[in-house]
Amino acid sequence: MKAEMIKVDPANPQREIMEKAGRILRGGGLVAFPTETVYGLGGDGLRPESSSRIYRAKGRPSDNPLIVHIARLEDLFKVAAQTPDGALRLAREFWPGPLTMIFPKNRAVPYETTGGLESVAVRMPNHPVALSLIQAAGGFVAAPSANRSGRPSPTLAAHVAEDLGDEIEMILDGGMVGIGLESTIVDFTESPPVILRPGFISREMLASRIGQVELDPGLDRPGSGPPKAPGMRYRHYAPQAPLTIVEGEAGSVAAYLNRLAQEESQAGGQAGILACDETAGLYRYGVVKSVGSRRSEEDIARRLYQALREFDRERVSCIYSESFHTPRMGQAIMNRLLKAAGYQSVLVSDYKD
Ligand code: TXA
Ligand code: MG
User: Fold this and answer.
1) CATH for 4-215, among 3.90.870.10, 3.30.360.10, 3.40.50.1000, 3.40.50.300?
2) Distance 67 CA to ligand 1 centre (A)
3) Which residue's alpha carbon is at the smallest distance from atom 15 of ligand 1?
4) What is the pLDDT of residue 151?
5) I need a surface site. Which of 109, 138, 186, 341 has the fewest CB within 10 A?
6) Residue 129 and residue 56: Cα distance in Å, rounded?
7) Architecture of the domain whose range is 243-347
8) pTM higher than 0.90
């Protein structure tokens, strides 16, 4: 592994470490760092060569734009050409935090960073390490999630090392992230604004501050046109084995999966089953993982990607997941699961052994 892995205090990042990381970014290098959502792969957002290196390191198509991360509200005006009142209200309310907003870009932002678009995505992350790194780097850090393109986003530094350890200069290890799903993205180049990617900040939270907010119709319904965020068009967040979501009442789902998982092992494979604390005990075959209690949607969001990665490591031949339509983050959780499953889902009812 080429990347230097450095443990950093997530609450009070050590100054020497952050200065060293900042020097790497200012010199055109790449540093992975923790945010409150997922780990990011940072480069200087105003340097075209840095953004090009990010695409190469991730194996990411270069028409998929990067988010520019800032640490001070006034820096928004250096990269965005127009900032509607609603967006500023959201910035004051939710930044630093898991919200990304899209604006017409101004000339400071190279097309390499925006994937050739005239707009720029901007976010102020709520994590001391991320904020300190942005400042040390000069204010503007372009950062996609720090996974190899198509894989689940990293929630631990070890996931970054697994995917990108040979490609980048440094990984700042600040422990496990808090939220575990990427930020909510709201497009302010449209009026009313449009949610391009659901996240911790829900549509209701946004609407209660600024009124009408639309949901990109291309998001969860294949066939209703491509999603507006280029990155939401690719199969994404995906483990290596094929994933199917199984909907239905818990007893029926368990009976159905017990049969499928038994058949899988008779055929020489092994099924992975993504369950919750309430149901994990019902499964008798395969590798069963719980993402936590259904009473804590935060736990489910936080552990989802890690569980998908663990199935890869354990080399299961197929994965089945329960569905998680939880009250507030359910939209974001199911959006990621459905994409990871390539929209494969089945509904079982009244199924018995
Ligand atoms: O939580 C997050 O947002 C994490 C952390 C590291 O901040 N970052 C992240 O970046 O998830 P990434 O690159 O994995 O996802 C960014 C998404 C992509 O789907 C991309 O297509 C979309 O944002 N996006 C970025 N700029 C855009 C633009 N100008 N117009 C439309 N979509 C844009
Ligand atoms: Mg990503």
Assistant:
1) 3.90.870.10
2) 5
3) 144
4) 93
5) 138
6) 25
7) 3-Layer(aba) Sandwich (3.40)
8) yes
Q: Which ligand is nearest to the CA of 218?
A: 1
Atom of ligand 1 nearest to the CA of 40: 6
Residues with CB under 6 A from ligand 1: 35, 37-38, 40, 64-67, 100, 102, 114, 117, 119-121, 123, 125, 143-145, 182-183, 185, 196, 229-232
pLDDT at 101: 98
Determine the atom of ligand 1 nearest the C-alpha atom of 230.
21
All residues at 6 or more sequence positions from 273 whose CB lies less than 8 Å from its CB, including other chains? 257, 261, 283, 286, 287, 288, 289, 319, 320, 321
Parse the chain into domains and list their residue ranges.
4-215, 243-347
- Where the chain has pLDDT below 50, the residues are none
CB atoms within 10 A of CB 62: 14
| Cα–ligand 2 centroid distance for 153 (angstroms) | 6
